Amino acid sequence: MYNLNTSISYLKGVGPSRADLLKSELGVFTFNDLLNFFPNRYIDRSQFLKINQLQENSSEIQIVGKITSIKTVQQKRGSRLVATFVDETGSMELVWFRGAKWIKDSLKINTPYVIFGKTNYFNRLFSMPHPEMELVSSYKKKLRSAMQPVYPSTEKLINRGISNKIVSNMIQNLFEELQGKFQETLSAAILEKLDLISKNEALLNIHFPKSQELLAKAQKRLKFEELFFIQLQLIRKKIVRKAKIKGFNFEKVGDKFNKFYKSKLPFDLTNAQKRVLKEIRKDVGSNAQMNRLLQGDVGSGKTIVALLTMLIAIDNGYQAALMAPTEILATQHYNSIIELLDGLDISVKLLTGSVKVKQRRIIHEQLESGELNILIGTHALIEDKVQFKNLGIAIIDEQHRFGVAQRSKLWEKNELPPHILVMTATPIPRTLAMSAYGDLDISIIDELPPGRKEVKTAHRYDANRLSVFKFLKEEIAKGRQVYIVYPLINESEAMDYKDLMDGYESISREFQKPTYQISIVHGKMKPADKEYEMQRFIKGETHIMVATTVIEVGVNIPNASVMVIESAERFGLSQLHQLRGRVGRGAEQSFCILMTSFKLSSDAKVRLETMVSTSDGFKIAEVDLKLRGPGNLMGTQQSGVLNLRIADIVKDSKLLTSARNIAIDLLTTDPTLKEPENIFIKIAYKEVSKNSTIWSNIS
Ligand code: ADP
Ligand code: MG
User: Fold this and answer.
1) pTM score
2) Which fold has domain 255-445?
């Protein structure tokens, strides 16, 4: 007897050599894999067109008509067969380049045919090469599905003769072998609640749709199921982690925290910051390891939350680490944190690639002895030599810049894993957060500190450069500072440097010394030189900072109020949003000017329009997700959670939300799925989680 786990090579019509191809090209190994190999589109053969309705660039179409004449046209090699085909609205041509002789004999003149295929338009005449044809008389006799499935394929499969028709036949055989009976995987309650059709009906109609309506129902059912089982795994994983992975218990909020909060905090926390801090305190005081993602728009004040969290660790006798993706950012965190902690007797050190060996040795020693409370740094933190005495919390800023493996190196040698707080640079759309980060706890700072003015954003063409320069001079005259940023998509691309250096030269010509001072920072400079130039700008000694995207994340210079982005069409939305976030940090009205050439792709236009019309990071992230698709967004490429077979987290966001809510409900009421009504879910869950590719984004 065959079952779903039977190897595909046993299926009628497959055999060993085709089986090898199915495995290597499509990842289809078993009956079950083939059953779940879904069409990616359908050709609607319930629709017929008239010849006068034909349009250029139409997809496959179907027409009823008659052949009125046939001729053979000689060409350089062989001949071509051309038939005139008419209906009551007009005429067109059918063309064959191969098999002309044989086809000619089989064609009937003045007899109604159904023809099907793609059309070409040339010299004001439509033609259809190699049409699929059938006499109307026999067409009417056959039972067929009006919706013809088209399966994903590869060049190799097609070259080796495995056409769509053959794949369809294989699936037909599969249904016959298994008698079209498949185990239900959802509970009656869920089917009813969401008005879903049974698994059996869904599988049948996804492969052999009886109607458009049933196809839609089949798709909905299978999409839901796919999303539901992923959510079930993610949520179960979170529950298990909380129950099993013990963490340090930060019982108290002590002196350091209180003293800082009462006498050092330079402002009141926003309500959102307070709420997030509460969520974090609850986690770190719960005996379980915290794994929390902190989301907040640019400038929402994540750093202070990080600092307060570190103080809780220190109050409980643990060390804390803060890791940032760039040296500039790590240095900036370090500088602002030592200033904030002044007089509190907390020892803080900075460890980056450019720290000298001797200083490094001191840091290593102080870390191991426990003398050092807070270590701030870059990737240098995860080097083997760095060993903490008792790392209680690791905070990772702008997390998408670090790989998973890199991050876990931080605490490999710890007895217990430290609490983890990762902070994102830009908001992640809700649907993506639910899937790619679905096993983490998420905190959101959804409020900006008071008194921020929205950054005024404009799009200008390169041709208007002079008026932009004039505007910059006016702002500088008011005491403001200006960033001018050049794209540097690929650090090694000489072209980008040329753009940057050319730009720098023309800016130097326009903004001449001694009236104007200019800093320049880019990736090819030595860290010390970069830092020197940064400091000049921070101190207000220079008016303009010409830079590449090294300043993209985190840099905080409140007096800089104008951000000019050159070749803005080359930047992605989240990068543009990050860059704009560098201004609007002080009390003054800030501006962002997006410079582009006239030639813009339609996606680039959408990006620029989005930037001009909103500054809400969550909205921008949604547009970004729509433009680029989930697979291309930061840090999610490797996530198996996003390798979906049929669902789409953007288009099916409503289904995703209900899948998640239903999964949470289910695991709350029946955590081990022991209730009889959930038996199908339990069986299916065991099956999916066996070959699961889901991994945690963090530990
Ligand atoms: P991000 O979330 O982008 O990392 P930062 O932590 O760098 O933002 O904060 C941006 C700026 O806002 C900093 O200058 C910080 O001191 C200030 N800030 C943070 N929280 C508040 C607050 N509650 N009130 C006023 N200013 C704040
Ligand atoms: Mg930040």
Assistant:
1) 0.73
2) Rossmann fold (3.40.50)
